[in-house]
Structures
1.
Amino acid sequence: MIKAFKCFIVLFILLLPFSTKAQYSPDEKDLVKTTFDRTFERDIISEYLGSNDPLRVNAGLLSVAQSGDKSFINTITNLDFNKNAEYICFALGQLGPDTLSSAYLYQKLSDPNLPLKFKPYILEAIGKTGFQETLESLVTDYFSNDYLMFNGISIALFDFYSRGIKDNLNFVKILQNELTAKDIPIQRKAQAAFAVYRTNLSDNFTDLIVNDLNNIFEGSTSGADDNTLVQYYLECLRKSKYFPDNSTFFRDLTNSPNPLIRIESAKALIYFNYHDSDDLSDYLTLLDDENPNVSRQAAISINGINIPGTLKSELKSEIYKRLNQEEEPSNTKGELLISYIKLFPESFPKLLESFQNKIGNEYLFKAASFFPDSISTLDYLITNYKSGSSKDKIEILGYLIGFQNSFGSNHDLKEILFNALKSDSPALVSIAADGIDSTLIGNNEVRLSRIISGQTIKFLNNADFIESLFSLNGLADKLDKNTFSQNLQDLSNSNIFKIRAFAKNKLGLPVEQNQTNDTLFINIWKDSFKYKFAEIVTEKGTFRIKLLPEYAPITVGNFCYLTENKFFNNLIFHRVVPGFVIQGGDPTGTGWGGPGYPIVSEFSQLHYFPGTVGMASSGKDTEGSQWFVTIGDFPHLDRRYTIFGFVVDGMNVVNSVDQNDKIITIRLTH
């Protein structure tokens, strides 16, 4: 049976990034300030890049990586690669596709005297900077040289694929070798399994994956990296909608001591060939799992379970029983209701009669969305929208959008959509702007144009409305060219860099330097290096984070500044995705709230392992107060979301956090 994470293994993995010395430091206020302001002053950055101290050069490269300014590439390629290889590769990769960068990196990759430890950095950067011909050369060299020299090839293939550069035949050949060659270490195999999953090649690997999983569960290999490999193997099987007819393997998975593996099993095991009641009972044990996220994932996945008709009556009875049990976790019950509707459709009034006051309202609202042709269901949602809380309104409005096709002329529905557009809620504005259909647009162009203009001017400098303003701009584009053009002109006057840059880029105008906020920077900077740890006290227990100001001083300083002001006290984890992340930090509890200002992204070369603490965002430089902790290993998040800490104690608490669990307080320590 697969082994659980051992404490010392987890700690070793999580502390690995701390073995290197700091990049940003308390002495580098000028560099952090120009990054914070997004001015990226060349005189300041050039001083760092020209330093004889490799750590100052690294700090300069971190700043350049956020700038998007490719004019730095020539300077970067003239730095001492052996002293700054990791950061040079990271910066070039973040600056994106470029002929000079790609050629430079490939020359380094081909250097026989270059230390092997640099290869993964180079390959990942090539995947971000290269072109189709670069990929072709890489494939040729992989097969004509010692493939052990290509540690990092799987991530490079994923990066090429993510940019639309593909070669499925050779991808399969390379990834098959990465998964089967005896001298490939298991961490590298895990990267290959990730690449198979993310490049949609799972169907080519089902037999290989099943054979390797059997070896793992028979004890041929062991260790923390096994969990990552199994995570992606199960994801691959799920994507292929396949699971082997092996009951022993089935039970090994459901009995795994690792909750992440049980969560992934809940997703994949629905494709098992169920023969009898015993098989079904084995899956149903996941619904009763002590970890709320395992039971919730099983409740989500069960609607797709592959069972014969002879077992459907039993399944219906078992789900119905759990829906009526008071001790069942509320989120599990809610997801079970959704699965129940999909498996055994009934009218909404009958469902409401059976389960009202037994199931959370948010799940009843979602259940109503499955009946978009029912006037009684529409009336139910409209009534609850009018009397509901702000959070209820956000939930319901998203569902009401789907009723426009059948009830577009309904007066109450139209007024709800228009009032949402005119509201002070960024969520309601965005949902309505994105969801109003073409018929409603065509019949109300003047009214909509007036609303768009008024809302844009009103919230032009409100950071909580960044996404909403973009949605309003999208709606303006659907109206007419004049409305769209005027809206862009209005947005171009925002004092929020993200909004101003968005508009001016569309208008083809130069984007001037950011308007500085010295007071905010002072508040953030004073806390950037003040604390080493943050203890997150939740109703499920406490977990401890090691803060990383050396990689993300602005983010750490902002987090500590907000914590000192008790911003996070009594907030909930508003978003928990089983096996993926727990996310909190939103004062509205809806996923749309923030501190009232944005901070810049601070991407780094760190990776998203289990227990990594990152910043949520709706795009580059839109971070605020929402943060998350990853449950598994997720390379697709790397370099796209700011990492500012790692959980060093209490990962069992992180794994037990359920959606809507409360953050009681956060304690900062030195």
2.
Amino acid sequence: MFRFLKVLFKEIYLINKIYTICHYFFLKNKISYQLDDSKINFSKPKKKTFFFLLIETSHTVNFLLMLFAKILQIKGYNVYALVCDQFLDACEIKSIRSLKNKNPCYSCKFNQNKVYPFFKIQIKKLSYFNNLKLEKKITKNLKKYEDNNFSFSVKDKLNYLNIPINDSVTRYYFGSHLEEKNQEKLSKLSLDHCKTALYMHEISRIIDNEYKPVAVVSTMASYSAWYPFFNYFKKDNRFRQIGFDTEICSFDPFKFFPSIKFFRRFTEFGKKKELNKKENIEINKYLKNRFNSQNFNSRINYNKYKKKYNQIQKILDLKKKINIFIFPNVFWDVGLSDRGAVFNTVLDWLFFTLEALKNNSKYHIYIKPHPAEFIVNNSLLGIEQLVKNKYGNSISNLSFIDNSNNFSSYDLKQFIDLALVFNGTLNLEFMLLNVPVISTGMTPTRDNSFIKEVKNIDEYKKILTNSCNFKNFLVKDKKKLKMFAYFWFIKKNLKFNKKNLYISSFTRFKGFNFKSLNSLNFNDIHHKTIINFILSGKQYF
């Protein structure tokens, strides 16, 4: 009920507007004091420029970016924040969920006018870069895109924009684009996102020519509004992506798929063969918490485990067959089209797998949709409905695992003969749980020689249809695997303690957790690590 009201609340424009204004009166005194720089000693100005690629200014994480832009400014660097001033016809904010919102740009506009001025950072609006010459160029390329069946040809230098444009259209619908019957609407949406991508393609070059930034900093690297900047500035290592969570901060996560280069660095190019005692304790504790491991020396805990085991067994109605479990990603989620390996997309992989396994009497297929399908920003068209729309009830050996059942993917380990995943950390987690697993996407572990890896579609089909020994997909070198787990879950991320968290929530910005800029220790490990990354682009480990 609470989640329903929260979604409803966000969709009602007038109520949201009133709430935003009331929230501002609570916020302004707090943030004006926190960001007061009148007593700050600014460093001598440096001839180095940084652009912070915000675009939309409603998401809480962008206030964190502005904070680090402020710290760079204090350190003497020339800093700009790039924002959309209602210039883009299509962006991530405008989606099928905002159709009832008379002004989806309201929150962004409000923050730009009322909250962002407290940072005293130079703002560059997208409309600033527009002119008649650029408009003509955009119009010409839009026509080329439309005439080529809403796609740039392979030989076209703009061909790289096809992926972020399609991703953005999919994101707009939260998965339900496959049910859209209005082709005119789909075409219009594709053109709008193409226009956004083309403008960002051109503006990234204009900014480089006019300002010559040392780096462009962003939390996003996908979709029509951000991908062109990412594609342009990553080539000479001038794109910095920072991922913030409530407890960790990650740097350039796109470089870790796969992680072979950085893992080799961590192991000092193979000299480090295993974790030391302290590292072992740390990763064991982490994995125990992550997998909710039970201490079976306790009779009570063993009985709880046995009860859950029996419950799952009953719910799954297990057959005396080879049980293959498929764990799809949220297929409309950020940047997944860039994570393909054997298959380009999650849906390509899923449907190929079902075609290979369907109605085979040797196998039973279980599909467990991703939990993110069912949270507040849930899919409007989930994997289960998608499969049923395509196949109906024609697949006799297929079952779906209902999200309402109170068990995780980890709890299923005893029942899995083979786990199939596209990409992500579930591949690594099943390795750690000693579950045979095959991934066909760009996973963190790919090319690290932990297990036999599938290289092409023919090999994948042969494995699924020829009753291969799935134990070939178990990891033999457990010490190396645990080292990788330590590297992936602990070492590569900067972990915050409660005193160093800058915000308390990622839902709505309520100010920062520190008292004032004067109270910040700019030389603590967290500030230094993030600032050094922005300046140099080097990973901190």
